[in-house]
Amino acid sequence: MSLYFLCFILFCVGLYCLLRKRNIIKIIIGLGIIEYSVNMFLILIGYRTNGRAPIFARNQEISNMVDPLPQALCLTTIVIGLSITLLVVGLAVRIYEKYGTFDITKIRRLKG
Q1: Nearest CA to 22 among 86, 109, 112?
Q2: Calpha distance 83→2 (Å, rounded)
Q3: In angstroms, how far is CA 34 from the centroid of its own chain?
Q4: Whether the Cβ atoms of residue 32 and residue 51 lie closer than 8 Å to each other
Q5: Which range, of 27-31, 41-45, 91-95, 107-111, averages the lowest pLDDT?
Q6: CATH number of 2-49+66-110
Q7: Are 31 and 84 spatial neighbours (Cβ–Cβ below 8 Å)?
Q8: Are 69 and 46 in contact (CB under 8 A)?
Q9: CB of 11 within 8 A of CB of 38?
Q10: For the segment 14-51, what is each residue's pLDDT rounded down to a tens digit?
Q11: Could you count the other beta carbons within 10 Å of the beta carbon of residue 58?
Q12: Within a 13 Å sphere around the CA of 92, how many CA atoms are in the beta-carbon half?
């Protein structure tokens, strides 16, 4: 139960970075922290104590196997998270080229 709480704390740290920081790079790091906490939560959902790999064989019983679905979801979120991170970093580079700063408050003042 404490591991789920630690995932929640990590998610809250990432959400704090996403909502309260003014630098675009720090916002991107907060987005990455949120992604890692969600991946860790998915792995914890599928974990079983003394679990076996979900490989089917004729002489094995289907008992105490680890659930493979959260592992597949975690791999999918890693790929999607990487593409989102690359997109946001590309946008940050273009914003820096246009405005010369990563500070959101200065960019909002230049809007006109």
Answers
A1: 109
A2: 31
A3: 4
A4: no
A5: 107-111
A6: 1.10.287.3510
A7: yes
A8: yes
A9: yes
A10: 999 999 999 999 999 999 999 999 999 999 988 888 87
A11: 4
A12: 17
pLDDT of residue 108: 76
Query: Residue 37 in contact with residue 50, Cβ under 8 Å?
Result: no
Burial class (CB in 10 A: 0-12, 13-18, 19+), 71: middle
Amino acid at 28: I
* Domain range list for the chain: 2-49+66-110
Evaluate whether 72 touches 82 at the Cβ level (below 8 Å): no
Joined tokens for residue 11 = 């998610």
pLDDT at 1 exceeding the cut of 60: yes
pTM of the model: 0.83
Tell whether the model's pLDDT for residue 111 goes beyond 70: no
User: How many residues would you count in the chain?
Assistant: 112
